[in-house]
Amino acid sequence: MILGRLTWGLLAVAVLSGLALAPFWSAARPLESLETLTGATPWGFWLRGVHALSAWGFLAGTVAHLVEVLWKKSDRRLSPAVWWRSVALLPVAVLALLGGFLMRGDAEAQAALAVWREVSASIPLAGPLLASLLLGVPGSDLAPVALHHAGTFTLLAWLLTAEHGGALVPDLRSTVLAALGSFAAAGLLPVSLGPALAPDGALLLGPWYLLGLQGALVVLPVFAGWLLPLLLVAAFGLVRHLEGRPRAALLAFVAAWGAGYLAFTIRLLFATR
Amino acid sequence: MSSRRDFLSGAWAAAGAGAAVAGVAAVGKALSDSPETARTVDLSPALLRKAEKEGGLVHEGLLVRGPASAPIVLDLTCTHLRCRVAPVEGGGFSCPCHGSRYDSEGRPVSGPAPRALSRPRLSPSGSGFTARLS
Ligand code: HEM
Ligand code: FES
Questions:
Q1: CATH: 3.40.430.10, 3.40.50.10320, 1.20.810.10, 3.90.1150.150. Which one for A2-192?
Q2: Digit-coded pLDDT (tens) for B4-31
Q3: Which one of A9, A151, B74, B131 has the minimum C-beta count within 10 Å?
Q4: For residue B23, which of A190, A152, A180, A87 has the smallest C-alpha distance?
Q5: Taking CB atoms and an 8 Å cut-off, how many pairs form between chains A and B?
């Protein structure tokens, strides 16, 4: 599956460009450190772009690859346990990307951090513990977030990919292709940094892939922030065990979920105008 | 093939062990931590005079206004999901996360915010005040 291989190549590019960014980033002064990097060096902007765009490509590729697998009904090729672990790649990828977004430290990132802390803390029993484990205690610097971004979630994403990908590293051709694509995209699409403070009266947008959730939280209670994603992941996991009508019904649920998510995204974007 | 499988099962074991250690460490820390103490903000006489003269100012996430001898303080943390609200032109506050609006007294007007902005308890300290946030 060429899409899956390319997606893994994008993950490799995200890891390598992340390692290149790491020495310039400061947990105590994240926004300033990134502004220094992008302002002082001509390649700083581009390097940020390579990292962000390869990561976005990784997420988009993961979703597209999952759809492709379900379309071709090749989910049966994996054992149930490996299938569930591969499906877990989706939330792991989102958490990895979200951690990177939080590491920007601009007004958007600070707002996302506050909301994400509340969403995590609303998980029954383990919530508050999980929130401080993943995000640090309120008022702490971004070191825990960075640790989970570059450590926990990156490692998990790699392991989960390697397991069903049947190799320890992506093949060279996909990696080179992913790198060339990311290099070119980073030259074309600027990945901006937000302001340090929220402009009066305006809405601050979270990362593009979480806008549906941000829109949902305008009208739904806070636990929707983890329950909605959990429902989607559970549906993807269960598909592997079903055939015929039940399978079609579950896939219809997934499609409805996606349509609802898109609707919340559009609603939020209209509210900002 | 089998060496690859061995590596992966080893890696899973290592990841599981890491998670277990982190979990135990976190539980230990949570149990040993004293209950979260409230944040306090010092409001110096100079700051209070400036707030009075300018008709209000934002300091460490608080809006301070009113007479320096009896200031009125609002915590600018949104009561929905704790984003920082900002004063808007014409009075009142808005939240950048899900669009809640508050009037100039901090009462919710629209959006998902369930309660008014909280008012920290003030206690005199020197010739200024200390604000205690819950
Ligand atoms: C060793 C691994 C990694 C390191 C050291 C690392 C480091 C960093 C640093 C320092 C930033 C902040 C810079 C910036 O925002 O421009 C960042 C942001 C980010 N990272 Fe990573 N990263 C790693 C792996 C990954 C992986 C595997 C992904 C995705 C799968 C990823 C996705 C992102 C994203 C989406 C951002 C935010 C970009 C933006 O919106 O500006 N990173 N990372
Ligand atoms: S956090 Fe203020 S409206 Fe949601």
A1: 1.20.810.10
A2: 555 566 566 666 666 665 665 555 555 4
A3: A151
A4: A152
A5: 77
Q: Would an 8 Å CB–CB cutoff place A107 in contact with chain B?
A: yes
Which range (A147-151, A180-184, B28-32) has the least confidence? B28-32
Residue A240 DSSP one-character state: T
Domain of B29?
A: 1-34
Q: What is the pLDDT of residues B37-46, one digit of tens each?
A: 578 999 999 9
Residues in B closer than 8 angstroms to A216, CB to CB, are none
| Ligand 2 centroid distance, CA of A224 (Å) | 14
Q: With an 8 Å Cβ cutoff, is B116 touching chain A?
A: no
- Distance, in angstroms, between A38 CA and closest chain B CA? 26
Collect all residues of chain B within an 8 Å Cβ-Cβ radius of residue A119: 81
Is the same domain home to B110 and B70? yes
Tokens representing B52 are 């009075």
Other CB atoms within 10 A of residue A23 CB? 9
The interface pTM score, or ipTM, of the predicted complex is: 0.91
